Amino acid sequence: MTRILSVAAALAVVVGSVGIFASPALAHETRSVGPYTFVVGWVTEPAIVGQANALFLGVSETASGKGVEGLAKTLTAQVIAGGGAATKSLGLSADADMPGQYTSDLVPTRAGDYTFRFTGTVGTTKIDEKFESGPNRFDPVTDGADLQFPDQVPPAGDLAKQLADANTKVTIAMALAAVAVVLSFASFIPALRRR
Amino acid sequence: MKRLRTFALVAALALAGAAAAGAPAAAHANYVKSNPAADARLVKPPTEIRVAFSEPPDPKGSQIQVLDEQGARWDEGATLASDEPNGLKVGLKPIGDGGYTVAWTTVSAVDGHETKGSFAFVVGNGPLPSLPDVPNASPAPTPLEVAGRAIGYAGIALALGCALFGLIVHAATGPAEVRRERQLFAFAGGAIAIGSAALVLAEGDRLPPRLELLLSLRLLTGIAVIAALSPRLPDRSRRYTVLVAGIAAALTATLVSHATALGNVKDMALDLIHVLSISTWSGGVVSLLWIYLLAGGRQGDALRRTAWRFSLVALTSVGVLVTAGVLQALDRLVLIQDLVETPYGLALLAKMALLVVILAVASLNLLRYGPRAQRTGLVRGTIVEAGLLAAVFVAAGILTALAPPAQPSGAAFDETQHVAGYRIELVVPTSIPGRNRFVLRVHQGLTAVTVAEKVALRFTMVEHDMGEAELVADERAPGEYVATGSPTAMYGTWKVQAIVRLPGQDDIRALFTVPISQQSGQGATAVALTTKSLSLVVFPDPTLPVAGAPIQLSVIALDGGQPATGRTVTGTITAKDGQPTGGQTFTATEVGAGRYRIDIPALAQGKWTLRIQIGGPQETADYTFSVSP
After folding, report:
1. pTM of the full predicted structure?
2. Which of B197, B189, B347, B366 has the alpha carbon at shortest distance from B258?
């Protein structure tokens, strides 16, 4: 009986893992790279500015569907915001329970498109692949305004930008005020001279 | 005083009437549409090229050239007017498969302005040729054209302003003043005639007949002003004669302006009011200086009263001038940034800056020298004012020769946004359900942005959840990115997010709201059908199917307002030219939420009927479409 249960459990794991790689989450991009299949996206979707999230990477052998292990040492990941306004190297952590699946923690702080770039090797295959968010791929990061209730809070990045703009305006206002003070004193000079 | 009130009342009524009318933009003769269309892929070569423009082009000065990828010309014969509005056409020699560039140059029949542009098409399956120039480029005006305009405007202003000064403010008395008034009239008449002649010379061989006629009429008004110097004419009659001739000359200026090009009465009225008000003011300043202040030693109350009377006329004119100018600027600028980012805006800004300085000088005359009857101060002030007003006419000469930023594109959708320092313009020539061409122009200031890593357009529908679709645009000309596809498959409102990715920068994102509707004259072929419980929109790609070439039929299916997903969709040929026929069945593939595509390898010429079945046999609808030879 124990043996039957063990076989059933093993079958369930195999079928489950095949299911995962055969039909990945809707908002993940699946791409064949040589003999391997890459699945890339966010661990949590929709990805919202300021909320803890993580890069999801799944690599399997296309022919067998078997997850490829050990890539945390042979692959490096990089996250790119927009056209490269900000880039960051990411360390990959293997999922102990799901062979071939890796994650890397990340808190996106800017709304928009993100690109994940992977370089290195998988087996003997050299890898240099970019995965970009977008329709039929994985979700861009949103500011989450639609989901906030009851108050809508601007993302920290936007607040920082607004603060910087406000500081600039205050500096300009102070400079203009100084000029106005000087001019107002200067306007007294002709009157003082007449006396 | 009664005359002054009457003058102010007439001016106020004219302005109110102008402000109450509609609000257009105006410009040069720009590309609207063509046959073949821009970026068209043709199965068979065309025998002629037809292009329609936003203004009537003059065929004499216009040209359409058709060039292959080696630069060899394939157009044949002269460029002629076509039978469609504002259209030109040119014949073609027999051409083979390959890419062709159509380079066009037009001269507006209204104002004589030249515009250049190009588009491309392909016969067969080859790549589209790249376009070397940004379309609709308008060559800079020549110095002779600017000089002709400035001298002409100065002449009109002098004639009108001097005549009104004599009729309303101060009639020249005594031989010295009358002599000086006649000198100004002679100068005004000469300037009008010389300005008109300079414009005729600047246009050269390409001078359109209508412009030739109006410039000739303006030249005649200049001669009429000079003829009014006849000693047999009483002084008062002379002033009225010059006034009428000046108004006629101002009218010719309006009739060859940007304002008239589109034939909008309100814009024309604003233009005329603008010319009349600046003329009254600037001509009056010169008259005050030359006839009144420099002719004799007027002092005290007489000087004070005349200065005040002229100030009232000038203030009214400036009020009308500024109001008419602002209303015109609002029509002709797309964005406030146009003031510093376009040649037209820079010329307008220079004119406005000059105006501010002139008003500062004029306020000294009005508030300080006039009330105190300080003749020396008034002479000095009006000399500076007159000199600056001359500079305003040079700025006006440049301004009227340049294309305003608000150009009529003839497109169904054309909107510009300013995002993070970049100008992003989305143009959708035909906003119909089905295949559309989306043109995104990206500029930073006056410079085309050519270094974009990626330019994408993302489409989502407001009324229904059709999912998000993306088109990636190719750079077809410097700063011009074009994408063609059918993401806007349904009637309704679509949000189009333009994303411009530049190296090392945050993405530039602009969100446009594009209405998609089936309007006549856009070549729309989408048809709304219903089955027992579903609503369908069906359209072919290409828009006009050709015999022997592959046809894709897009079927959008809605079930209770939501996309009908996961259905089995088939299309069966049931009739040709109205006769039942046993036909082939094609199975559709689902290409998006509720979006299905039926691929038909080829059909013969004729009118075909396809029975579309969605799911069970109850859910059917017949779609009829034509296949051309």
Report:
1. 0.71
2. B347
